[in-house]
Design a protein that fits this description.
The protein is of the alpha/beta class and 275 residues long. It is 39% helix and 17% strand. The protein has helices at residues 59-72, 91-95, 99-102, 107-127, 130-145, 160-168, 214-225, 244-247, 253-273; strands at residues 24-28, 31-36, 45-50, 75-79, 152-158, 179-183, 201-206, 232-237. Helix 1 crosses helix 9 (253-273). It is globular and about 55 Å long. The protein starts with 23 loop residues before the first strand and ends with a helix. Mean pLDDT is 89; it is low at 1-6.
Length: 275
């Protein structure tokens, strides 16, 4: 079972977060990187954020890095994994607005959205296919592990980056990180990408995710259940669509609550397995 090779418009849905990121930018392993760190600069616990298709400059992702750093007292790295070619943030609202607005879309509006996604996202995914992106991601994680003071390292992935967080935990290769959290991972090959997992993994999905249907969720659950020697969990959030953990609608109480809960899920997981 697999989610396939394409993404629907829901991969591009969501809203831009308010707030000002508090971290800084530097170059690590040749990649521009947003860094959020505690006041004492501790790197004993470190998290590498693997972004969605909107990349390292999206305010939502930077604010998430700040939140994890503050909550865990850890250093968080958010690298540019797309070589400056992440999809622009204004594409979020242009392609698919929040659920409250979606309900008012006409059939023509939806057709236009689908055509826009196909024309934009298809070529992007080819340019950033696994053969190109995985070496960049794994190279960056290896570089981070050489930074003085670094002890345990976790991978936090959203959407496009969610799959690579699971792969970094051993799925399809060596366990590069000590723990991984994947929020609505896309393009996940089930069960193949999960069979090699050797480090603790936590997965968050929405039950209205257009990229991960009920059958695929069941396949993920079954694959993880076979990992009897590895700590794992999968939580499904009622009424949530793809991208909810990072790009939910803050004006919706249900979506805000889900964003808070999925953040707590990740913080608790890393708090336990990066200790």
């Amino acid at each position: 079972m697999s989610t396939g090779v394409g993404m629907s418009a829901c991969c591009l849905s969501g809203t831009i977060a308010s707030g000002t990121p508090k971290g800084r930018e530097e170059t690590i392993g040749g990649l521009p990187t947003y860094v959020a760190e505690p006041a004492d600069g501790s790197k004993a616990k470190t998290i590498v954020v693997l972004s969605d298709v909107f990349g390292w400059q999206l305010p939502n992702t930077r604010l998430a890095a700040d939140t994890y750093s503050s909550a865990l007292g850890c250093t968080v790295y958010l690298p540019d994994l797309h070589s400056g070619t992440s999809l622009p943030a204004d594409f979020l609202n242009a392609v698919e607005p929040p659920l409250s607005v979606q309900a008012k879309l006409t059939t023509l509006d939806k057709a236009k959205n689908t055509a826009t996604v196909a024309a934009t996202l298809g070529p992007w995914l080819i340019s950033h296919r696994e053969a190109v992106s995985r070496p960049i991601i794994e190279g960056f994680i290896r570089q981070v592990k050489t930074i003085p003071g670094t002890n345990k390292v976790g991978a936090l992935g959203f959407c496009w980056g969610g799959r690579y967080a699971l792969l970094a935990a051993g799925g399809g290769g060596e366990g590069l990180v000590d723990a991984a959290v994947a929020a609505h991972p896309s393009l996940l090959a089930v069960p193949g990408d999960l069979e090699g997992i050797s480090k603790p993994v936590s997965v968050a999905l929405g039950d209205r995710d257009g990229l991960v249907d009920a059958g695929t969720r069941g396949g993920i659950q079954d694959a993880l259940a076979k990992k009897t020697d590895v700590e794992h969990e999968m939580r499904v959030y009622e009424g949530m669509i793809h991208g909810f953990a990072l790009r939910g609608d803050w004006s919706s109480e249900a979506e805000k609550r889900a964003m808070d809960e999925v953040t707590s899920q990740g913080v608790e997981w890393f708090g336990k397995y990066l200790a």
